[in-house]
Amino acid sequence: MLSMCILLFNGCAATRDILERLPFPGLASDRIETNYFLVHQGDDVLGQLGGIKLKKGDTLPDIARHFSLGINTIHAANPGIDVWVPRAGEHIVLPLSFILPEAPRKGIVINLAAMRLFYFKKDGNLLAVSTFPVGIGTEERPTPMGRMYITRKKLRPTWYVPASIAADHRKRGDPLPATVPPGPLNPLGEYALYLSKPGYLVHGTNKPASVGLRATNGCIRLYPEDIKRLFDTTLVKTPVKIVNQPYLVGRRDGVVYLEAHAPFEVSDSTALKKAYAKLKRIQNSTGLALDWHKVKKVVDEARGIPVPVSAIGSGGKTVEAQTTRVRHPDKLYGQPQVPEFRTDAWYVLAANFRDKVDARRLAAIINHQGPQIPARVLSMSGRHRVLAGPFHSNGEAGDAAKRMRIDLDIEGILVAPVEQRKTETGK
Amino acid sequence: MMKKSLLMVSVMLTLAFAIGGCATKGDLNEVQAREMAISAKADQAAQDAEAAKAAADEALLKANEAAARAEAAERRAEERERIAAEKERIAEEKARQAEAIFQKSMKK
């Protein structure tokens, strides 16, 4: 009995030792909250960080979508990790902890710098928030800021192409029709919430990999699965406030946190000065000693993760201790699938590389176009060919080649089915 | 009496000369032996010095060779490092270019 107890105890100690040596301590969990949180009185920090071990074939956009994160935040939280061809076995952080922006906790609040939407609602007597990553306007066509509200909702919206966008497309040799009906080519996706600021919408997308990028003409884009949830729960007249706060200061369990995002305007130090002033106010009013070296480090690194900058008391935890290890799911939600290779189909030879990583990267980028263009790498004799397809017809392959030329600057070569080539060559 | 005395003196002188002559020869032998020994030692020392010099020359040669090898190895390592850094730079550049193209393709 005693020896069994000793063995058991040793076993536990050994297991503990192994777990402590892993990047994220604790047993791997199947689930981590990604979108819905209760907001406790006096707390500004939501959720917890996750950690996951990558598998062969993963890309950061696929991991990001599965965990309802934008590509910007997963990239910032994991500097040095190849977005498209990360190494299998690498551990990455899932930045699923957020500081609420400084704005009234009512209706929809969108923080452009964090590229994240927060939707506040009552859950019984408690305040709850649903949060989703978003894609926002480009530098040339930025998303407007300020107060507005939802004027109407539309399922399967039609896209009325604005004149400026039509002109851009014409210049690129890709003229657009005046209207794009609902369907896979409609960039609004399946759901749209129209804002009181004319011409601006919160909508879905046919390019899910663009969530977390500055890629829209000022609209707010969500993953198709996220816009459905927002659409279903949002009422017309819901207030919307759009802010741009790259530096967020918040408190949870008596600990002060700072979350920094790379600001859009590096030269504009107003937001940073405001954050420092807030931290100083907290230090003076609470007597909490803040680690100013850490504050500077958090600002410089801009990893988009809430980091404790005050002394960790009994209620607080370090960033590492707050990280939950998450088991890699068998299937990542929304991950593009590539159909089996077929000899009776049309393909487009996109590129031919010496370096396999280059080939895998391009194939992944082609696969993440919206709508998807399936692509794979075929390796032979030290060369790695990127083939887009299979396509049913010459026309379909031609359309894909055109899209690759316009969107990715790739001059693809059409490859006929094997049987047809044999007939043509008489072999 | 006078004759006896003279004889005694001459005998004494002869003896003295005889004894004195024997001592000089021994000394000479000793000196010769010493000279030979010193000469042998000098020869040995010269040989040792020659051997030591040869050994030192060889050691110096080896040290120079080792230093040259180390320098060459260092140069090779630096070259490898430079090539690796260049490869990394090229890989990063390619990744950046690919990312820029991807981001452009994500616009409406």
How would you sum up this structure, described in words?
The complex is a heterodimer of chains A (427) and B (108). Chain A has 10 helices and 25 strands. Chain A has 427 residues and is of the alpha+beta class. In chain A, a hairpin with a 2-residue loop joins strand 7 and strand 8 (126-133). In chain A, helix 2 crosses helix 3 (71-77). By secondary structure, chain B is mainly alpha-helical. The N and C termini of chain B lie far apart (158 Å). The relative contact order of chain B is 0.03. Chain B is built from 1 helix and no strands. At the A-B interface, helix 8 of A face helix 1 of B.
Give the secondary structure arrangement, pairings included.
The complex is a heterodimer of chains A (427) and B (108).
Chain A (H helix, E strand, L loop, with lengths): L1 H20 L14 E4 L5 E3 L2 E4 L6 H7 L4 H7 L13 E4 L2 E3 L7 E5 L4 E8 L2 E8 L2 E2 L8 E10 L3 E2 L2 H9 L7 E2 L10 E5 L5 E3 L10 E3 L3 E2 L2 H10 L5 E5 L3 E6 L2 E6 L9 H17 L5 H10 L5 E2 L15 E2 L20 E8 L2 H12 L7 E6 L2 E9 L2 H15 L4 E3 L2 H8 L2
Helix pairs in contact in A: 2-3
Chain B lengths: L1 H104 L3
